[in-house]
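User: My advisor, Dr. K., asked me to get a structural model of this assembly before our group meeting. I'm new to this, so sorry if the format is off. These are the inputs:
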Amino acid sequence: MALDKTGIAKRIAQELRDGWYVNLGIGIPTLVANYIPEGIEVEFQSENGVLGMGPFPFDGEEDADLINAGKQTITVLKGAAFFDSAMSFSMIRGQHVQLTVLGAMEVSQNGDIANWKIPGKMVKGMGGAMDLVASAENIIVAMMHSNREGESKILKKCTLPLTGVGCVKKVVTELAVLEIRDNKFYLIERAPGVSVEEIISKTEGDLVVPDFVPEMVL
Amino acid sequence: MNKVVNNVEEALVGIEDGMTLMLGGFGLCGIPENSIAQLVKLGVKDLTCISNNAGVDDFGLGLLLHGHQIKKMISSYVGENAEFERQMLSGELIVDLIPQGSLAERCRAGGAGIPAFFTPAGYGTEVAEGKEVREFNGKPHILEMALSADFAIVKAWKGDTEGNLIFKATARNFNPMMAMAGKITIAEVEELVPAGELDPNDIHTPGIFVQRIFKGEKFEKRIEQRTVRIKN
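Assistant: The format is fine. Below is the predicted structure of the whole assembly, which you can bring to the meeting.
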């Protein structure tokens, strides 16, 4: 069965490594913080100016001066730090953040990503996404394999305005874990009960399928 | 040097139609809300506003959009504001969207005497159109220009009569860089204390960057996305 958003977040959480500083985007990526594997310590950076982000506050304890990049009220953990936006993006551009997880509307087999604009329809802006994808060494995209019309979002070439070029190395969808190398998608894992045929049929980009594709262990 | 002015009316003297303003804040967090209310009252028009976001429909910069006081916005993210989207799609409002880190650095550069810099952010996208590209360490970068403003308006938690500022939590965001980049920088603060009461070790923005400081009359501090856990 295809994963729900929680399942995608759980699978991405398995990619976390001890000692990493991690930036989580809005939406599914935010959920990754709920599934940090046992024995692993990571610290979350939010680009509006906080390291050491904690869970949402208890009802009545929210502070208008303490939010994350999604403008949600948050708390901080022991050892947290606040800083201004220029310093925040120094951490990001300077590659001091080890992992960036973000959502996408489209990715292509050369690692391009589009997630900020649909011409004539929706323009919300790129926020920090362009800075993040241009500099992060390690980017995981959390997204759905196809859109509401059933059209693949895992493409040979993106159709929407780009956020970054040649930067995505790993994609986790409700159906599969894909790696991007040599201008191709490689099928690494499939969601429990999802057939290789279904993944092939919903992937427009060139997909390399090994003889044996393990199921995700969640 | 005493930078104190009596109130928001005195603080905003000199702001005229067609000027470029920087306004601190991220979403509704750390925005100079008293000054925005006064800009609405003054009715100044054709403003170019440099601010990470454009507020929501009925608060923050949304109030200026509602009165069609803004001609051009320079921002990184403008979701959550239906009137903004309408004015942008209809062409009433000129919008320059730039990556958040580039926006922060362009403000910082403007205040730091650096006319331009290269960044990898936006290479290969619409943002790079018309900009010089140069390769450093095998990676392409684009040239981004410094930003400055006729007035920068920032909001701080505590300030002293010398204009030294301390920000609280994530309400710091763009405020320190914008304070540096204004020809005249106005700071509205929650607490205004005599010089000597703030520990110099704790100052985030030194008073040299601030020309006018006043205690804001009232801070609503609206929360955009109230997210909470329920206690067991």
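One thing worth pointing out at the meeting: The two ends of chain B are 53 Å apart (CA to CA).

User: Perfect, thanks a lot.
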